[in-house]
Design a protein that fits this description.
This protein is mainly alpha-helical and 213 residues long. The protein has one domain. It has 9 helices and no strands. Helix 1 runs parallel beside helix 4. The longest helix is centred in the middle third of the chain and has 27 residues. The protein is elongated and about 65 Å long.
């Protein structure tokens, strides 16, 4: 195991997250040729599938980046297993702009079931990858920093445990309703923003406890 800082891993990952978030905007098109009697506002409203997919994917990647950053606040070392686990996670991130474009294009037309399966399937993969990444580093404190807080580590582990199953449920829902699955993914992005905030609250309470020694 290489005992070194994880700065290069984080910097590389940050770049991948930033590029994926930026690529999402390429699907937002300015309406140029309006139909007879159509207003610009009407044309923009007609593009609601694209906007919904964009907001959902952007929020999801943003929360994934935030959680990735917070995970590495506890990870102090790296080894090959961690690097490959992180690389697999980033694979799901770089595919998201394509799957977002796919589901936005087919949201209200034939083929939406297949588009939803591809889109939601990537979220299942990402949820699994987060568990693999975190557990490869946290099991037995293997790659964690020497000053890690066991309570926060346990909180993160518990919050990620059900992620793959929950996203698998959304995958099934997407077969029946792509729109509902997008809204559920957006809600899940907000949910996964909560554990880190809760962990930070626990950490602040721990630091505020007066020392008795």
């Amino acid at each position: 195991m290489a005992r070194t800082e994880t700065g290069r891993v984080e910097a590389f990952s940050d770049g991948v997250f930033a590029i994926a978030m930026t690529l999402l905007v390429l699907d937002l098109k300015v309406p140029h040729d309006l139909a007879p009697g159509q207003t610009l506002m009407g044309a923009l409203v007609a593009e609601w599938p694209t906007f919904l997919a964009f907001v959902t994917s952007y929020a999801t990647i943003l929360i994934m980046w935030v959680n990735h950053h917070r995970l590495f606040a506890h990870i102090g070392r790296w080894d090959d297993r961690l690097l490959f686990s992180n690389g697999l996670l980033l694979f799901g991130v770089v595919v998201l702009p394509f799957t977002t474009s796919l589901v936005a294009t087919y949201l209200d037309r034939p083929g939406h079931e297949a588009a939803a399966m591809v889109y939601n399937g990537i979220f299942v993969l990402i949820a699994v990858c987060y568990n693999v990444l975190w557990r490869s580093a946290s099991r037995g404190g293997r790659l964690l920093g020497p000053d890690h807080d066991p309570d926060i580590v346990r909180q993160i582990t518990d919050s990620y445990r059900w992620g793959p199953l929950i996203y698998a449920v959304v995958f099934v829902v997407g077969i029946a309703s792509v729109t509902v699955s997008l809204l559920l993914n957006l809600a899940l992005a907000l949910y996964f923003a909560l554990p880190s905030a809760l962990a930070a609250h626990i950490a602040r309470r721990g630091r505020s406890v007066p020392r008795t020694d």
